[in-house]
Model the fold of this input.
Amino acid sequence: MFSGSTSHRRFTLVELLVVIAIIAILAGLLLPALSSSRDRARLALCLGNIREVTLMHLFYVDASGGYFCPAWDSSFASWESSADHRGPGILSRVVPDSSAAKGRVFECPAAKAALYTNLAWTARYAGYGMNYQLSFSDPSAQPPNYRPCRIQIVRTPSRLVLLADSACFLAGTDGRPAPTAFLYNPSSGRGGYADFRHSGACAAAFVDGHAAAWMAFTPRPADSSGFEDRVGYLSPDDSLYDPLWRAEETPAQEEIKVDETPVLISPVHERLISPKISPRPGN
Done:
């Protein structure tokens, strides 16, 4: 019987270094593509979430005689959470949100990484801000001084923002943006701001029910908070925010009067709230 020895050739150090270099090059080529795919997936999920929350708002409008859900009320409950930021908000008192609660559709999938969410008193969900001008005439207004706003007065529903990825700046957040449930108009110079956290895109939903990845970024007034290229506004003026916005080229249009009927918050659940309504200044 023939017996022989089998020799095993081992890799040299140079060959191992070449293999490692090739793997590193391939990883460098693939990781940006994987990161981009992950960002696109988060944006797609975010658009689905914000579209579903928008439908809840529109169901609310239908149930309350055409009025939009208040941004917040005298009990300090906001549209999306209770006063302690741990229970359901005004919207969920009217529109059943069992699927929303299970699916956490109130939360942007990119928010936990993009925002500071460790404060106990921040918004219940890190994600979306509601257009404040659908409840109040300006950011300094608060309950009970609502500006009653019915969907019938909106001039261009497809151009009036209802919800968008949002952020604000608070003390004690290590310089990072924090969640907010409100979205303020550019002429206020204040935030809640729109947050373009999806690689330069901001998920925004409009009163006609459609949602879009908004790319037109408008910087906020200069400050020392940072994130100047991410946190700002959806437009340079209030045209996407003000339901009574009148374009300069049509000044002769008939004046639209705001209905001052008390807002019925919850006819569906027989939980009616009629806040004292103050007329809009100048009307």
